[in-house]
Amino acid sequence: MLKKRMRSVPLNFIRIGDSFWKKHIDLVENAIIPYQWEAMNDRIPDAESSHCIENFRIAAGEKEGKFYGAVFQDTDVAKWLEAVGCSLAGHPDEQLEETADEVIDLIGRAQQPDGYINTYFTIQAPEERWSNLTEGHELYTAGHLIEAAVAYYYGTGKRKFVEIMSRFADLICETFGEDKAIHGYPGHPEIELALIRLYEVTGKKQYLETAKYFVDMRGGEPNYFLEERKRADYKKIFPEFEGYLPLYSQSHLPVREQKTAEGHAVRAVYLYCAMADLAYEYQAQGLFNACENLWNNIVKKRMYITGGIGSSGLLERFTTDYDLPNERNYSETCASIGLALFGMRMAQITRDARYVDTVERALYNTMLAGIALDGKSFFYVNPLEVWPDNCLPKTSLEHVKSIRQKWFGVACCPPNIARTLASMGQYIYSVSEEGLCVNLFIENDCELRLGGETYLVRIKSKFPCENRFTIQIAGDAKLPNLWIRVPAYARSFQIIGTDIEGTEESIKASEHRVSYKVDKGYAHIREDVAGKTLTVTFDAPATFVRANPLVRADAGKVCIVRGPLVYTFEEADNGENLEALYIDTRQPLVEEYQENLLQGVVKVKAQGKRMQMQAWSEDALYQEIPVTLEDITMTAIPYPYWNNRGKGEMCVWIKELL
Amino acid sequence: MLKKRMRSVPLNFIRIGDSFWKKHIDLVENAIIPYQWEAMNDRIPDAESSHCIENFRIAAGEKEGKFYGAVFQDTDVAKWLEAVGCSLAGHPDEQLEETADEVIDLIGRAQQPDGYINTYFTIQAPEERWSNLTEGHELYTAGHLIEAAVAYYYGTGKRKFVEIMSRFADLICETFGEDKAIHGYPGHPEIELALIRLYEVTGKKQYLETAKYFVDMRGGEPNYFLEERKRADYKKIFPEFEGYLPLYSQSHLPVREQKTAEGHAVRAVYLYCAMADLAYEYQAQGLFNACENLWNNIVKKRMYITGGIGSSGLLERFTTDYDLPNERNYSETCASIGLALFGMRMAQITRDARYVDTVERALYNTMLAGIALDGKSFFYVNPLEVWPDNCLPKTSLEHVKSIRQKWFGVACCPPNIARTLASMGQYIYSVSEEGLCVNLFIENDCELRLGGETYLVRIKSKFPCENRFTIQIAGDAKLPNLWIRVPAYARSFQIIGTDIEGTEESIKASEHRVSYKVDKGYAHIREDVAGKTLTVTFDAPATFVRANPLVRADAGKVCIVRGPLVYTFEEADNGENLEALYIDTRQPLVEEYQENLLQGVVKVKAQGKRMQMQAWSEDALYQEIPVTLEDITMTAIPYPYWNNRGKGEMCVWIKELL
Lengths: 658, 658
Hints:
Two copies of one chain form a homodimer. By secondary structure, chain A is of the alpha+beta class. Chain A is built from 18 helices and 23 strands.
């Protein structure tokens, strides 16, 4: 753990212009934000009703009516505002900002005299405030509103929303604590990391301390949630959580004693984010060790190769080590976003690039799979294998959707994807007075403030299509240190320095190999790079990856990975019954860029065999006849782009011909 | 469909003395019946409370107290009495009979003045009688009591229990029907087949007609269960069935229109048994066609190779065609028993041995796997693959037990196994005036009544250890026809006739090959076999069987089958992580009888490979390294005997080295 952590560059200092990401990021402004705005105002035909703007109007006393939606319905507004804040940072838009300002004003008017904000409890159950921390989601909702306020402040410079939320945060700090009325903590973590962010923009130490209180109290004896349920006035909200165990909400043990990632995956990673922040803020080694243990448990035992987490469709939870079923997992888009947020914190408080390897995997695969190429439909659940005909209630695969959905009743994933895309800039760099880390190879221009100096950093990149990018850093002073991430998948990583004054023709003449030392996954460059163009190249060919044989679901199978992208096989390219395919891993993989496929992707062809069906009549279920195989060429596409060509089977892991 | 169906030989005319089955059958008298008697009287330490005898005492007004148990708690007593009836048929036991008589007297005293019997509704909810056919299980419970009464009559010749149950059956017939008060049918089928059996021993046509009424009404519009739930006085019993669909109880369509086996597997096969009986009794071709469609759907699309049915652990139900997951299925022991009962009816109304192939598969594998070799513990759920560490609530595999359980709160399977073992005799022969079918090759002496004549039939057999058995038939008259089943797995099936007067030494001298014609899976023998010994031999070596490649769970895998027995691999013989094993199907299988293994079994050895773990540290989840294999010899044991050597992994289907 560093004494002085690194931070991301504020979004309004970064402009992304990347051939891989920009088309997705542009969807936020052009499709997702406008679409969600319509949804929140109940103007999307055939979509589930949202009512969430209406709820605020009713809570503000400006309309008559009843609350409608989930107890956490307000978070839709919060996540939308957070996405808007992130988007405005990179793409100013007066009209959008005006609309958002009006929503913020409305939230202000719905705020209660004591600072409280929550339309469900305000309209429907004012007497039940804070009475059901297990299921009530009040602190969770508050957390998302606070995150939105912070993002809006960073994106627009306007503090009104931060002030509104600070009043609510003050109320929370006055209500929860050792010498306060309530000694509980939230059923769904989120407030903790939000209070820490609010502390960052307000400097109010109390916010940090209340976050620490929530984290420190969690899982202590007697268990708050089990006690809460015994109270006479306790009212259940979600009947399906009848058998709810402390494990589900990571309250089975004090957090410092937790060594395995348990329970609802989104709750888990949001909690771990706050733990990492607090470990740094208080330089608390025990808490940091817990973060490392939990991280390692996830990435070494409980994570899909796509960066997905949550192996169980039921209760969206972690299960056991190496239990990674491909067709019935949850792997919620939000959970992978949370994993990226957790990993980025770990990377920035350790300056260790191995965390970024996982962050990149989660962002390029599961997060991006959550949204269609047109930005109009979304996945909550991200299986690694889909048999559309079997995604039914009677197979207990109702949670797996074989096509992306327009909108959701519980609409967490779409706006979460929006804020993540709009804030991709936060993942590109880590910066502190010691210097600059380049984490992701995304084309951008960045204005960097560091030790009182300003630098202009420019990355030009066609990664991951090509494994080559350039960095130029201009500034009056020498950059103290530069670290460029060496991804775990990179081979023959090299950096060539070129005089930046040179013309295209003279580049070769003045280039030299830049020496570096690999330091925790970064190429650490000591030479002065000012005025130079650094050209980073490495090999990252499509390759076969296998899972630990203890992963029973993948034993005997391989998958194809090319740089950060996991590849998958679709029925559209490979026909029906993908379980009948074998890959011949002795044959080379062939990469082929196809411009008209999925808006331009590198597809990968493999040689293999298909089990033939001729010997099997419809009437035969079990027979003694041998397997016959026919030669085939199989085509894989990047996992994030699956299901953009209609409904069909999909399979990441394919049997290996041995 | 035959105009005159075949029937089983009454149990009291058969004495089984079989090296394979007798040790299991003896457990009924020596272990299961006494154990269950103790359980029903709450005298088993650490077992779940039963209270079911006590419930009858309370209902009879002989004791004060409250009802305890499930709404169908009475069925434990019914199934015990049925097992006792079957057992007494083969093994008279005065003391046991006396105890059973006392229980029957108690049931008689608990009968209400109008004939009604059900301790739950009598004690706890008399006003709710017949008000919840969906979940109340009253007709189901009545059915099991009727089946018990019929079995007790056959086993002892005593009619008192039949008379008691006839009074209740009369009440049911007066209550349900087109011109009667209630136009419903049971949520859990069972009464239908029970009424048909009661008709067989009483000749009262009304019982048959009410069974037909229940079957004909089922699934009509409007759906009775959906209507029932709308009533103001409807009280839910099982909250977990909130989302209950008509499909679950096979009431989604009129039965004649049902083409796929749906819903709760036990309910399904019990219903199909009655449908088959009624199809014959009324010579109803449409109903028979439905039975054939449903049978074919099960055995060609929805059945495990072990004869297990019910692919879903949740709700114990059928799922979709070819959806046969090995580690999370239900495959309830009772469902396979029901499948055997259904198959036997189909075999006897068609004289087609292909039904018996499945009956045999279910009895020799799933039914028998349900009970430990010592008769003291039981499986409800019969997976084809078990990872003990993963059988947890958080993996949604709580229903899969990695060791057999002592007793169950819902104790259907143990007594169901008991009655099945005690009535194995019913499966051996089918008989009608046309002649005799030999279905199963189980050693027994049988007194056969046929067309006014009596024959003594003796089968001597060490099957399936040896694929050879002899039949001797002695009688004054010529047996009209003899059919000996030619199992689907038999090769080189031949029958040698020998003069029965001969001595051991002279047998060879007088033997001749008996000519037969294969007729629907039976070797049809026309020659007079009186006074002869028929020696039937065939080859049925251990062999590799593959599943239709549309069975995704088994694609690329093989299993070993030897005659009726499916084989499986246990950790005890093959080490941990059975998913790392490959079978080399080009190498021969080696059979080896081992007397001291599992009370004497033929084990099967296969050559194969194991994925080596050396290259995988605990820290590596995904790597580019190739698979390395080491040669191994693998040992398989018969599936029914798995888990008799402590907890460990088990796996039926093994990856094939291609």
